[in-house]
């Protein structure tokens, strides 16, 4: 049974035998009931604004053209971001690191003190 349509009654449609055979075969290939297959087909045509009498060529070409324009716009935005944000920022960071590398002087200078040797105990006694 089809979900959500269990309580609905069946109606009959008059279609040619050859068309009915093709439709039944198609329903088996997509593993759906005949009602659900027909409903899916109708929803597809309605949602996509496609008429079975029209060729898909112009509609697909227009869609492809719109998609290509959006892709080109995204590429242009990314290139602009790279030029205005990424490269200057990377250059500034690189210059900071290059300037800090040569200045490797010690921050705290040690005072050089003159060492005074302490007198040993034995030497002090000799002096007196």
Keywords:
128 residues; BfmA-like_N
- The unreliable regions are none
Number of helices: 4
What is the N-to-C order of secondary-structure elements (H for helix, E for strand)?
A: HHHH
Beta strands, count: 0
Fraction in beta strands = under 5%
* Content-based structural category: mainly alpha
- Mean pLDDT value: 80
Helix coverage percent of residues?
55-70%
Q: How many angstroms separate the termini?
A: 122 Å
Query: Sheet with the most strands?
Result: none
Shape: elongated
The rounded Rg comes to 43 Å
Q: Please, could you describe this protein's structure?
A:
InterPro entries: BfmA-like_N (IPR048012). By secondary structure, the chain is mostly helical. Among the domains are: 42 residues; 44 residues. 62% of the residues lie in helices and 0% in strands. It is built from four helices and no strands. The longest helix is centred in the middle third of the chain and has 45 residues. The radius of gyration is 43 Å and the shape is elongated.
């Amino acid at each position: 049974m089809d979900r959500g349509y269990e309580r609905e009654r069946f109606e009959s449609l008059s279609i040619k035998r050859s068309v009915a055979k093709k439709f039944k075969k198609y329903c088996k290939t997509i593993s759906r009931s005949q009602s659900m297959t027909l409903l899916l087909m109708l929803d597809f045509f309605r949602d996509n604004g496609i008429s079975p009498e029209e060729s898909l060529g112009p509609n697909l070409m227009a869609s492809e053209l719109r998609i290509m324009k959006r892709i080109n716009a995204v590429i242009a935005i990314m290139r602009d971001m790279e030029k205005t944000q990424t490269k200057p920022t990377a250059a500034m960071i690189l210059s900071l690191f290059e300037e800090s590398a040569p200045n490797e002087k010690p921050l705290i200078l040690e005072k050089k003190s003159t060492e005074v040797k302490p007198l040993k105990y034995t030497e002090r006694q000799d002096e007196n």
